[in-house]
Amino acid sequence: MILFTKLFLAHLIGDFLLQPLRWVVHKESRKAKSKYLYLHILVHFLVTMLLLWDLTYWRTVLVIVVTHYFIDLAKLYTTPLFKIKSIPFFIDQFLHVLVLYACSYYGGVLQQTASWFQTLDWGLVTAIVFVGFPSAIIMGKLLDGMSAQIEFDHKSLPNAGKYIGIIERLFVLVFIILGRWDAIGLLITAKSVFRFNDLKEGNSRKLTEYILIGTLLSFGLAIVTGLIYMGYR
């Protein structure tokens, strides 16, 4: 585990802390001809070797930096094919971490993965998944009749309300697991403050009631989920 942690830390330092924006821009424009691509790979090699501080790992580090080069190169050439530019970024990061994982547990990847799955808290995983998109869909169905009666005359980011709800329910779930019920009250207060201007400008009783019902329903689903998890843990 310590090997993977060091490799992952080296990746974070090399890919984020020691990679200026001008390097990224230059790589995107020049691709394989960019000198910063190779400088970036060199930085990864040096940082990884420094953190490991063991020359016997040089082959492992060599495999990591070579695969890092080809993954980065593939991202540079395939990014224009994606409408959502964040997708190749996350694919790129996933592949890098996958390589680090494989190198850390070389010879025992399947056994380590099986062991990890066996020790996983599946009740917690289920709770996290439920307060995410499933809860958002359930709320949408329950509030569908009410939302048809509300006139939204203000512009908003697409699906912003849904993602805000998912994040707030995740926070509530975490607070329940930690036993911090006071933090849930603080979260409700903070959301009320941010929503105050919308309600004031909208001057609509229906909108106010709709937001209140949605907020209470969202927090309620998260609280019930958290209590069920804590009861059967």
The ordered string of helix (H) and strand (E) elements is HHHHHHHHHHHH
Mean pLDDT: 90
Give me the secondary-structure category: mainly alpha
Radius of gyration of CA atoms, rounded to a whole number: 24 Å
Which helices and strands, and how do they pair?
Elements: H1 2-17, H2 21-30, H3 35-52, H4 58-78, H5 86-104, H6 109-118, H7 122-130, H8 133-142, H9 144-147, H10 160-178, H11 181-202, H12 205-232
Helix pairs in contact: 1-3, 1-5, 2-3, 3-4, 4-5, 7-12, 10-11, 10-12
Protein name: DUF3307 domain-containing protein
Transmembrane segments: 36-53, 89-110, 122-143, 170-190, 210-232
Keywords: Membrane, Transmembrane, Transmembrane helix
Characteristics:
233 residues; mainly alpha; 12 helices; 0% strand; globular; Phage_phiKZ_Orf197; transmembrane helix
Give an overview of the whole structure.
The protein is 80% helix and 0% strand. The chain is an all-alpha fold and 233 residues long. The chain has 2 domains: 2-118; 122-232, no CATH class. The two termini are 26 Å apart. The chain crosses the membrane at residues 36-53, 89-110, 122-143, 170-190, 210-232. This is DUF3307 domain-containing protein. Keywords: Membrane, Transmembrane, Transmembrane helix. Pfam families: DUF3307.
Would you kindly provide a brief summary of this structure?
Helix content is 80%, strand content 0%. The protein is built from 12 helices and no strands.
